Structure formats: structure tokens, C-alpha cells
Amino acid sequence: MVQINNCRRMSLDSTTLAKINLRQDLLTARRSLAAAVVEKSSQCMARHLFDWILYQQAKTVMIYLSMPDEPQTEAIISHAWGNGKSICVPYLRETPGLMDAALISNMSELTEGRFGLKVPAPNRLQFIAPGNIELILIPGVAFDVFGNRLGMGGGYYDRFLPQASSAVLIGVCWQSYVLTNLPTAKHDRPVHFLLTEAGILSCGKGKM
């Protein structure tokens, strides 16, 4: 959760401040989700994804490594490996806001990194050029029906996604966190589709 002091709050523009307040409210609710609900909903989401033609066709997929209150991705990663796909995951650089795509071939290659996130072990890193990724599953605190994303506030995906210009972008979140409209800034990159436990929604920017 983003923490800011009163002096800094006064200097923020209205869009940034609106995002901070909304993020805090939604994360508080999300972190109260029961583990059984997370598991059941994640299984529904995985089934929708496995039936989706763009997932089936993609050979190189970037998938986030989930936190406990997020839609879980371990089953998706295992399914993708079982279907011959190359899987890469986010790897945060030492420089804040910057990340790379690191290939993994086994869950045993992961260790705990910053923010308590799973990451590839530093001694086994193998990066892939963002331009070679065909499909990216993107986490979000919330999305709107136009594909705009409310993230955690670090700007990692905002800086990474322009490098992956040929990839299909699919946002992943709980259905109740798909909103009518989100505050947006110029640097925000909308996704093409949304994956929720209710199915896959086109945001009007898809590459079908």
C-alpha cells in the first residue's frame, strides 16, 4: 500500500491522488478475501484462459507470479509448460520502476525477492527481449471496461509494456474489481482484454 505524507499529498495532481485513494480502498477489501474464494475463482479464470484461442496460439507468454490475494497463476504456468510454451516472469531491477522478463522452466528456480514476491533466482537468470513476447498476463488492483489499469503504483508495467509492442495484453483481476471508469494519466497503457472468473472481456483494443 502506498504511504505518503501530507506535504507530498498537496503536491500531487488530482489523477494521482485519486488513484492512491482508490488503490488503498480496493486493496483493503481485496486482502480480506477468503483463501477458498481466491482458489475457486482462480480455477475458473484458468479454465477460461485455457479455452481462449489467443492463449492456445501463443508460444511465448509472460505471466506474473501471484501474491496470496491476487488471482493465482501457478496452475496457468504449469499448464503452459505442459503445452510447450516458453514462460517468462517479471524480474525487478535494482533501479525502482524497471523490470525485465526472465525465462523460467521450473518452479524450483524461484526464490523470494523484494516486496515478498517470488522471483527467479539471481544465479539462474535468463532474459528474453520484450519484443519476442506474444501474450502478457498483467495483474492489477483494478481495471475498467476500457482496459485502463490501476496497479500498485510502482510504474513497472508502465515502463515495460511499451517495449513489448507486439504482445497481446490481458489484464487479470477479480470481476468485482472491473470498474466503469478509472482515473488515467498520459503514460497509462490500456490492455486489450480482461480475464476474470466470469470470463474474458474484450476492451475494444483486441488483436483478434
Give the SSE layout.
Layout: H1 6-11, H2 14-30, H3 35-50, H4 53-57, E1 60-63, H5 74-82, E2 86-92, E3 99-104, E4 110-112, E5 118-120, E6 127-128, E7 135-139, E8 142-144, E9 149-150, H6 156-160, E10 168-172, E11 178-179, E12 193-196, E13 199-202
Parallel strand pairs: 1-2, 1-7, 7-10, 8-11, 10-12
Antiparallel strand pairs: 2-3, 3-6, 4-5, 8-9, 12-13
Percent helix among the residues?
Answer: 25-40%
Distance between the termini: 36 Å
- Structural class by sheet pairing and helices: alpha/beta
Average pLDDT for all residues = 89
Low-pLDDT regions: 1-11
Strand content: 15-25%
Major sheet size, sense and barrel closure:
8 strands, mixed
Structural shape: globular
Which strands sit side by side, in order, in the main sheet?
6-3-2-1-7-10-12-13
Rg (CA only): 17 Å
**Total beta-strand segments:** 13
Q: How many H/I helical runs?
A: 6
**SSE order:** HHHHEHEEEEEEEEHEEEE
